[in-house]
Specification:
An eight-stranded mixed β-sheet has the order 3-2-1-4-5-6-7-8, sandwiched between helices. Helix content is about 55%, strand content about 15%. The protein has about 280 residues and is α/β, with parallel strands linked by helices. The protein has twelve helices and eight strands. About 35% of the residues are buried. Helix 4 links the parallel strand 4 and strand 5. The model has no long low-confidence stretch (mean pLDDT about 95). Helix 7 crosses helix 12. The radius of gyration is 21 Å and the shape is elongated. The protein binds 1,4-dihydronicotinamide adenine dinucleotide (NAI) and (2S)-3,4-dihydro-2H-pyrrole-2-carboxylic acid. The site of (2S)-3,4-dihydro-2H-pyrrole-2-carboxylic acid has 4 residues, from helix 7. Its EC number is 1.5.1.2. This is Pyrroline-5-carboxylate reductase. Catalyzes the reduction of 1-pyrroline-5-carboxylate (PCA) to L-proline. Keywords: Amino-acid biosynthesis, Cytoplasm, NADP, Oxidoreductase, Proline biosynthesis.
Length: about 280
């Protein structure tokens, strides 16, 4: 629990996940400022979580000691310039969740080299089960690092990475990762339907299986590979299914997919850096 004010700039999907997680963890919604140009978004967040809402970004920033930038990367330059003067008053810690937006670019737009923490959360933060990578610019003090970690730990597991580049790897792994697992669930559900199950049964069994597998992986000291072996009876049904997934080289496919996400994060960074 904290009494300091956090200003969320942008109140979309990621901000909502973080706000939901923080409120569930005991943060008072009244200590969370949110600005967004969409009034319906602000109304929803206020009604659901009791946050203070602002149509103007600078008004949300005033009085806040932490800024959480939850904008699309392409909006970053314009909005940072817009809030720079208001932010300069209290020199807040700036936490950015924006994929591919470099610390240096944020400092350039905000002016005065403020301390920046790049955080790469994912949407399960909404149910306090996020996976969050963190990196701090050299200006961030030990207190600042602890403060950022405390905020993000309220919504999931946090890991500091050694270099800013590695945030792009985190983006490709756990930032985008929920979508990979949701796609796998969609595919498994469809497979169940193709085998004659009704849609609801296929969906419920798929989701519970994903939950059970994840819970076992979290609670076990064995790696996922060992847990997989225990499901796979020699000459049994799982073995037959896995043969197909391995023949299609799922590992190579996953590496290609993650590399594409990683590459895209790099493209966003380069485009933004070139515009400085
Ligand atoms: N959705 C996800 O799973 C994850 C997203 N991210 C990052 O979070 C950031 C936001 O993504 P989402 O929340 O998914 O996008 P979103 O589109 O849901 O949210 C962006 C919000 O910014 C608002 N906005 C637009 N112009 C604005 C302005 N001038 N001032 C203030 N707010 C403005 C929009 O109305 C919208 O509500 C992105 O940079 C993304 O890379 C990071 C990790 C995971
Ligand atoms: O798709 C995106 O660009 C964002 C970053 C990670 C998850 N969603």
């Amino acid at each position: 629990m904290t009494t300091s004010t956090i200003a969320f700039i942008g109140g979309g999907n990621m901000a909502t996940s973080l706000i939901a997680g923080l409120v569930a963890d005991g943060y008072d919604g009244a200590t969370l400022n949110v600005s967004d140009p969409r009034p319906e978004r602000l109304e929803l967040l206020h009604n659901r979580y009791g946050v203070a809402t602002f149509a103007r970004n600078s008004d949300a920033v005033a009085g806040a000691d932490t800024l959480l930038l939850c904008l699309k990367p392409l909006q970053a330059a314009e909005v940072c310039r817009e809030i720079a003067a208001a932010a300069a008053v209290r020199s807040p810690l700036v936490i950015s969740v924006m994929a591919g937006v470099p610390e240096q670019a944020l400092q350039y737009w905000l002016g005065g080299q403020p301390p920046i923490v790049r955080a790469m959360p994912n949407t399960p933060a909404m149910v306090q089960t996020g996976a969050i990578g963190l990196h701090a610019s050299p200006e961030v003090s030990e207190d600042g690092r602890n403060h950022a970690e405390t905020i993000l730990r309220a919504v999931g597991l946090t890991r500091w990475v050694a270099t800013e580049d590695q945030i792009d790897a985190v983006t490709a792994l756990s930032g985008s990762g929920p979508a990979y697992f949701f796609l796998f669930m969609e595919a498994l559900e469809e497979a169940g339907i193709s085998l004659g199950l009704d849609g609801e049964t296929a969906r419920l069994l798929t989701i519970q299986t994903a939950l059970g597998a994840a819970k076992m992986a979290v609670e076990s000291t064995d790696p996922p590979g060992r847990l997989r072996e225990r499901v796979t009876s020699p000459g049994g049904t799982t073995e037959r299914a896995l043969e197909h997934l391995l023949k299609a080289d799922l590992h190579a496919l996953m590496k290609r997919a993650a590399r594409a996400a990683h590459h895209r994060a790099g493209e966003i960074s380069r485009d933004l850096s070139e515009s400085l």
